Amino acid sequence: MDLHQDSNGSADSQSDGLINGNGTCLPAAKVPELTKLNSLENASSRSLFKIVHKILDDTIDNKKEDVPDRVASVLKKLIQMTEQQISKQAEYFKKQKNIYKTREEKYQLKFKVLGSLVIGAAEENELIKNQLQLIKSEKKKIEDIKKLEDVELIRLRQEKNECNLEISKLKQEIEITRDTYETRYVQLEKHGIEVESELKNKITDLENLLIGSRKKVKELEKFTESKFLRWKKKERGYKNFMDFQSGSLKELRIGSESIKQEVLKTQQIYTEEINQFGMKIQGLVDAAQNYHTVLTENRKLYNEVQDLKGNIRVYCRIRPFLKGQSQKQTTIEYIGENGELIVTNPSKQIKESHRLFKFNKVFSPSATQEDVFVDTQPLIRSVLDGYNVCIFAYGQTGSGKTYTMTGPNVSSPEDWGVNYRALNDLFHLSQTRRSSFEYEIGVQMVEIYNEQVRDLLTILTLTFHTLGIWNSTQPNGLAVPDASMHPVTSTADVLELMNLGLTNRAVGATALNERSSRSHSVLTVHVRGVDLETNGVLRGNLHLVDLAGSERVDRSEATGDRLREAQHINKSLSALGDVIFALAQKSQHVPYRNSKLTQVLQSSLGGQAKTLMFVQLNPDVESFSETISTLKFAERVSGVELGAARSNKDARGVRELMEQVSNLKDALSKKDEEMVRLRGGKTTNGTPPRGECLSESSSHKDLNDDDDDIEILGLGEDDSEERLSDISDGGLSMGTETDGSLSSIVELTLFPGASKPPVEKPNVPAKLPRPPQKVAASSRKPVQTGSSSSSQRLAAAPSRTSLTKGLPRVSLSSSGKKSTPGSSSVKPGVRR
Ligand SMILES: Nc1ncnc2c1ncn2[C@@H]1O[C@H](COP(=O)(O)OP(=O)(O)OP(=O)(O)O)[C@@H](O)[C@H]1O
Fold first, then answer.
1. Mean local confidence (pLDDT), 490-509
2. Domain 368-615+628-648 in CATH: superfamily?
3. Using an 8 Å Cβ cutoff, are 345 and 352 in contact?
4. Is a pLDDT exceeding 80 seen at residue 743?
5. 10 Å Cβ neighbour count for 253?
6. Of 431, 311, 326, 439, which is closest to residue 379 (Cα–Cα)?
7. Distances (CA, A) of 318 to 560, 688, 737
8. CA gyration radius for the chain?
9. 402 CA to middle of ligand 1, Å?
10. Torsion angle, CA of 127/128/134/137, rounded to 10 degrees?
C-alpha cells in the first residue's frame, strides 16, 4: 500500500500543509508542535513523511541545530510504522493467499464435477439422439402403416358397398324362398297326418308280432337250459380225466427226478473216470514228450553216425517267388520239419500230381542265408580237422544256386552265401585254435566251361588259358596245380579275390535266364594245419561248387553255341552222378575222368570226404517237370553212402573214429531200447521190438521215426510194415515218391502235427513212401510183416537202377560216351 495513504485510506495532504489523523491537512506553521513525541503517535505515515520533508526543508533553510533529535524520533516512528504496516500487509497477503487457495480447490472440484457432468450430458445426449432416431424410424413406420391402412379402409368401404348390395339381393331371394316354403309346409302337414294314421295301424300289427316272438323266446330258453345241463355233465367228465392225467404227470415227474439223480450219479462216476483217464493221458503225454526227446537225441546220433558212414547229405532249398511273380501258383504243398517235401502240380489235378520226397533238410522260401549256413557249419568246420568237404549246389537255371553259394549282394554280410560265410567261419575258428594249431589257408577258384578249366583268379584276358588237372594223389593234394593259389588271412582278402573271380566268370544269356551261368564254378579252400604240440600236419580242403543250370536243353531253346554249352553241362552233371553212384557201389573203377568237373572234385568226392548237395528248387508251376527230375536225382544221391569220412592225419585218428562209431551205435541201440520201453514193450506178434532190429542197422533211423509215427496213430504193426515193404517195389528209389491220392494219408501218418485235415479218398493206396536209408542200408533184415507178398515183392525188386535217371538225356546221346558199366543202375537195397 502507498505510504502516502493513511490507515483509513484518506487522500494525500496538500503540498504546503500536513494531514492530521482525521485526514485534514495541517498548516506548515504547526509542524514544529506536531513533532513532539506524543503527537507523532497518532500521525499517519504520509503526514510523518511530510513532517520529515518539512523538517528537512526547515533545517536546510533555517539551519537550526535542534533538528536531528526530532528528525530521529520522526524517522524512528516512521520506520516502526512502516514495519507494522508491512507485517500487516504480509498477514493480509497470507490470508488472501489461503482464501485464494481454498477457492482454487473449490473451483477445481467444481471443474471436475462439471467435467463429469459434461461427459454424462454428452452420453445422455447420444442416447437421446438414438432414441430420437428410433422415434423417427418408428414414426416413419407408423406413417407407412397408416398409409396402408388408408388404402385398406378405402378397399373395405368398397367391399362394404358391394356387401350391402349383396345383402339386399339376398333379402329379396329369402323373401321368395320363404313364400315357396310356406306353401310346401302346408302340403307336408297334410301328408304327415295321413302317414301318422298309417303308422298307428302298423304299430298295432307289430305289437301282435312281438307277443308271438316272446312266446318263441320262452320256448328257446327251455331248449338252451336242457343243452347247458348236458354240457355241464360233459365238463365234469373231462375234469375227472384231467385229474387223472395230472396224477400220472406227477408220477412221471417223480420218475424223471429219480432218473436225473441217476444221471448225476453216472455223470459223477464218468467225471471221476475221465479224471483218471486224464491222468493216464498226462502220463502218456509225458511219455510222448520223453519219446520226442529220445527221438531228437536219436536223430542227432543218427546224424553223427551218418556222418561217420559218409552219407551224402542233401539239403533242399526252395527259392521264393521273385518280385512280380506273386500271383504264380506254387508246386510246393508241404514242407516237413524233418526234411519231408510234398510237391504237387496244381494245374493238373490228377492222381500222380502229388509226390513226397525226403531229404536231410528242406529250407522253405523264407529261410535266410544264416539259417542255411547254420546247418552247413559243422561240415565246413571239419575242414580244419583235416577232412575234405565238398558242397555243391544243383538245380535248374534261376533256382537260386548262386544265391545260396555266393549270395545276391557281397557288400552286405547278411546276404553272404555259404562261400563267404564258410571262409569267414574258418578264419574265426582258426583264430580261436591258434594256441594249439597253426593254420595256413589258401584259395583257388576255377571255372569249368565247355569242358575247359580256367583260372578265375587271374586278371581277365581275352583268351583263357586252359589248365590241366592232376589226380588227387599228388603230394600237395592239388587237383589243378596250375590254377593260381592265393593265401588268405582275412575275410577282406577273400572278398577281393572272389569279386575278381565273379567278374571273370563266364555268363551267357539264354531264353530262360538273362544272367544264367553256363559254367560250373569251383572255389577251393585249402587248409594246412600244424599241431603245435605234436608237430603233426593235417590237410583239408573244401570245394564250394556252383554248378551250371541242370535244365533240359530243349526247354532253354538253345541252338548253336548255347546248345554246345548245354550239352557240356549235361555231360558233366551226368558224370558227377556216375561218380557218386560208383562210389556208392564201391566199384573198383570210379569214372572221375569222364568229366573235368569230377576230376577237379576228385579229392572231395572220394570215400574219405564229406559231401553235401544243395538241391535248389524253383516253386513256379511252370518248372514242375524240372523240379521233379531235380528232386528224383537228389533223392538218389541222398541214399548214397560213401563210407566213413577220414581225416587227413595219422591213422590213430581213424581208429578213434571207428571206436566212436561203435560207441555211437551202442548209444543208439540203448536209445532204441528206451524208445521201445516208452512205447510199451514188445510187439503183439512176438517179434522183437523194432528198435532191436534197428539197433543192428542204425542207418534206418529215419524210417524208424516214421514207423513210430505210424504206430502212434494206431496203425497196426503188420499193416504199416506191409506198406513200408511195398514201397521198396519202387526199385531203387529211396522210395519216397507217391501218388496224388496219397498226400492226405501221408500227412496224417508221417506228419501227425500237420494242420490240414485228411481228405477221404476212395482208394487208399497200398504204398507208403519209404525213406531212402532203410532201403539202402546194408544190414537191413527183411521185416516180418506176415505178408508174404510184400517180402516177395521186396526180393523181386529190380536190382539196379540208373542213378542218372533224373538227369537230362541230351548230353548222354550227344557226347556218345556213357559211364562205366554198372554205373547206370543201383540195387534197391544197396548191400555192403
Ligand atoms: N532264397 C532266395 N531269396 C531271394 N531271392 C532268391 C533266392 N534264391 C534265388 N533268388 C533270386 O532268384 C534269382 C535267380 O537266382 P540265382 O541267380 O542264384 O539262380 P541260379 O540257379 O544260380 O541261376 P544260374 O543257373 O543261371 O546260375 C536271382 O534274382 C536271385 O536273387
1. 75
2. Kinesin motor domain (3.40.850.10)
3. no
4. no
5. 10
6. 311
7. 32, 41, 18
8. 68
9. 6
10. -140
d(CA 604, CA 310): 12
- Does the pLDDT value for residue 107 go beyond 50? yes
Which residue ranges does the chain devote to CATH 3.40.850.10?
368-615+628-648
Of 665, 650, 651, 733, which Cα lies nearest the Cα of 696? 665
Q: Tell me the one-letter amino acid at 329.
A: Q
Residue 457 grid cell = 583268379
Residue 356: all three cell numbers together: 513226397
* One-letter amino acid for residue 154 of the chain: I
- ipTM summary value: 0.98
What's the pLDDT band for 326 if we cut at 50, 70, 90?
low
Q: How far is the CA of 514 from the centre of ligand 1 (A)?
A: 12
CA nearest neighbour of 532 among 383, 381, 645, 430: 430
Which segment, 53-57, 435-439, 614-618, is predicted with the most confidence on average? 614-618
Evaluate whether 303 touches 315 at the Cβ level (below 8 Å). Answer: no
Ligand 1 binding site (Cβ under 6 Å of any ligand atom): 319-320, 322, 395, 397-403, 408, 513, 515-517, 549, 616
Take atom 1 of ligand 1 and give the residue whose Cα is closest: 319
Res 797: pLDDT? 32
Of the candidates 527, 506, 524, the one whose C-alpha atom is nearest the C-alpha of residue 515 is 506
The atom of ligand 1 lying closest to the CA of 516 is: 26
Let me know: does 415 contact 562? Beta carbons within 8 Å: no
Considering only residues 465 and 268, tell me which one the structure prediction assigns the higher pLDDT.
268
**What sign results for the dihedral spanned by CA atoms 509, 510, 511, 512?**
negative
The residue written with cell numbers 540208373 in the block is: 802
Read off the pLDDT of each residue in 122-140 and give the average, rounded to a whole number.
93
Per-residue pLDDT of 747-801, as tens digits, reads 222 222 333 333 333 333 322 223 333 333 333 333 233 333 333 332 333 333 3
Angle at the Cα of 64 from the Cα atoms of 62 and 68, rounded to 5 degrees: 130
CA of 388 relative to ligand 1 center, distance in Å: 27
Could you tell me which residues come within 8 angstroms of residue 685 by beta carbon, excluding any fewer than 6 positions away?
A: 717, 718, 784, 786
Q: Which of 611, 550, 544, 547 is nearest to 583 (CA)?
A: 611
Q: How far does residue 374's CA lie from ligand 1's centre (Å)?
A: 20
The residue whose grid cell reads 572255389 is 523
Tell me which DSSP letter residue 653 carries.
H
Provide the mean pLDDT of the chain. 71
Share of the chain above pLDDT 70, in %: 64
